[in-house]
Design goal:
Structural class: alpha/beta
Helix content: 25-40%
Shape: elongated
Largest sheet: 6 strands, mixed
Radius of gyration: 34 Å
Distance between the termini: 84 Å
Low-confidence stretches: 165-180
CATH superfamily of the largest domain: von Willebrand factor, type A domain
Number of strands: 21
Mean pLDDT: 84
CATH class of the largest domain: Alpha Beta
Strand order of the largest sheet: 18-17-14-19-20-21
Number of domains: 3
Length: 424
C-alpha cells in the first residue's frame, strides 16, 4: 500500500510511475479480496473450540488445561488464543493448524485458593492463507471446576510413608493388655488373672492355659484447625489455613491407613465444623468435603470454647494436632491456660508457623541505619517464636514450629514418632 501511494505521488511527474502504482494497488486489492473470501466464506463453524479441564483441581499443585481447535479450512492457519483463566490472568497462546486438522494448546494453572474456579469466554484470532487479513471468533464456553485440598499430595505422602516404614524400620508398638480383642492362648504363669483361664484348653492340655488379650490398636487422632485472622497470612500466594488444610488431609489419610480413627474440629471465635473420629472410605470422603468448605474470618480465636467443646465431644484420650499461629508472646500467654487444660486430658501438639517473610530481611546485608534496625527487629521476632516453642515444651506441650512448605513433613513425622513410641 505504501508503495502504491508513493507511486501515485511521484506519478504526477513521471507517468510510468502512475501506471506502476495502479498495478500495485489493484493487485493488492485482488489479493486482499481473495484472502477475505477464503477467510470468511465459511460463515458457520470455521473453527471448533473445546476446553478440557480437570473435574477437580488440587490446591497448591500445578494443573494442566488443554485447549483443542479443529479447523475446517482447506489451508493452514495460524493465530493466537486469548484465554482468561480462572485465576484472572489473560494468556496469549499461539497456535498453528494444518488443513482440516486440529491443534492442541496447553498451559498450566497453579490454583492457590479453594473453591470454584470459573472459566468464561475465549477469543481466537487467526490469519488467512495470504496473511493480509485476520478473523476474530468469540467462544462462549463458560466452565467451572472445584479446587479441593490436594489429593495429589495425599497420595504422594502415602507412598513416601510406606516406603520410609520399610527402610527405616518404623513399627507400631503392640502392648498386651485386657480388653475384648483376643491375642492368643498361653501357659499360665504366676500373676495371671484367674478370670482369663481357658478351661476347655486347660482340660485338653492337662495344664492351666489362659487367654491373652491385646490393647486396642485403633487410636483417636484429631486435627484442630484455627480459622481466625492469624491464619490468613499468605506464603507464596497461599494462606496458612490452606497449608493446614492440605496437611490435615495428608495426616488423615496416613492415620486411616494405619487403622487409627481420625477427626477434625474447625474453630475461630465460635466452633465451626465437627467431624468425629472414625474410619472407612465414606469417612475419608466426608473429611475431604469438610476441608473443602472451610474459610477464614477476621475474628479472634476463643480457646476456652475450644476446650469445653473438646471435653464434651472427645471422651477418649486422643492425639490433638492444633494448627494455629501466634504472632506475639502476649498472644500465646492469653491462650496458654486453655492449652494446658487440653493437654491435661489429651496429647496436644501445637503447630504454628515461622515468619518466613522476615527470614530474608534478617540475613540481608544492611546498607544504612534503617536496614540495621529492620534486620534486628526481624531477628527478634523470629527469636520470639522459638522462645514460645521452648516455653510450651517446658510445660509439657509438644510443638512444631515450621515453615509452611515443610508443614506436612513435620506433622507426619510427629505422628509417626508418637505412634512408634506408644506415647499416646
Amino acid at each position: 500500500m505504501l508503495l502504491a501511494i508513493g507511486a501515485f505521488i511521484l506519478g504526477i511527474k513521471w507517468d510510468w510511475l502512475l501506471l506502476l502504482g495502479q498495478i500495485v494497488f489493484f493487485s493488492l486489492l485482488v489479493l486482499t479480496s481473495t484472502d477475505f473470501f477464503l477467510l470468511f466464506y465459511k460463515q458457520k463453524s470455521p473453527i471448533q473450540f473445546q476446553r478440557n479441564i480437570p473435574l477437580r483441581m488440587n490446591l497448591g499443585d500445578k494443573e494442566a488445561v488443554h485447549l483443542e481447535l479443529i479447523s475446517n479450512y482447506p489451508f493452514p492457519i495460524r493465530g493466537v488464543i486469548l484465554e482468561k483463566d480462572g485465576l484472572g490472568e489473560v494468556r496469549d497462546l499461539p497456535f498453528q493448524i494444518a488443513p482440516k486438522s486440529h491443534a492442541l494448546v496447553s498451559y498450566e494453572l497453579h490454583p492457590k485458593r479453594r473453591g470454584l474456579l470459573q472459566f468464561e469466554m475465549c477469543y481466537v484470532r487467526f490469519g488467512g492463507l495470504l496473511g493480509l487479513l485476520e478473523r476474530n471468533l468469540i467462544f462462549q464456553t463458560k466452565q467451572a471446576t472445584a479446587v479441593y485440598p490436594s489429593i495429589r499430595q495425599m497420595k504422594a505422602f502415602e507412598f513416601a510413608v510406606a516406603h520410609a516404614s520399610q527402610e527405616r524400620g518404623i513399627k507400631k508398638i503392640r502392648q498386651l493388655g485386657h480388653n475384648n480383642e483376643f491375642e492368643h492362648i498361653k501357659n499360665y504363669t504366676q500373676g495371671d488373672e484367674l478370670k482369663t483361664i481357658n478351661w476347655k484348653a486347660s482340660s485338653r492340655r492337662n495344664e492351666l492355659m489362659v487367654n491373652q488379650y491385646q490393647i486396642e490398636r485403633s487410636q483417636h487422632i484429631y486435627a484442630l484447625v484455627d480459622k481466625s485472622r492469624s491464619m490468613k497470612h499468605a506464603y507464596e500466594g497461599m494462606q496458612l489455613l490452606d497449608y493446614a488444610i492440605n496437611s490435615t488431609l495428608v495426616l488423615g489419610n496416613i492415620a486411616l491407613q494405619k487403622q487409627d480413627k481420625f477427626g477434625v474440629f474447625t474453630f475461630a471465635n465460635k466452633m465451626g465444623s465437627l467431624l468425629l473420629a472414625d474410619t472407612g472410605k465414606a469417612h475419608r470422603q466426608g473429611l475431604l468435603e469438610l476441608l473443602y468448605q472451610q474459610k477464614t474470618n477476621f475474628k479472634e480465636t476463643n480457646f476456652d470454647l475450644v476446650y469445653y467443646t473438646i471435653r464434651q465431644k472427645i471422651k477418649q484420650r486422643s492425639m490433638l494436632l492444633l494448627f494455629t499461629n501466634f504472632d506475639t508472646q502476649a498472644a500465646l500467654e492469653r491462650v496458654l491456660p486453655a492449652l494446658l487444660r487440653i493437654n491435661r486430658h489429651h496429647l496436644l501438639v501445637v503447630v504454628f508457623f515461622e515468619q518466613t517473610d522476615l527470614q530474608q530481611l534478617s540475613i540481608q546485608k544492611p546498607r544504612n541505619i534503617q536496614d540495621v534496625y529492620l534486620s534486628q527487629v526481624a531477628q527478634d521476632r523470629m527469636l520470639e517464636k522459638r522462645v514460645m516453642a521452648k516455653k510450651m515444651n517446658k510445660l509439657g506441650i509438644r510443638t512444631i514450629l515450621t515453615e509452611p512448605d515443610q508443614l506436612s513433613v513435620k506433622v507426619i513425622n510427629q505422628y509417626l514418632e508418637v505412634k512408634s513410641k506408644g506415647i499416646l
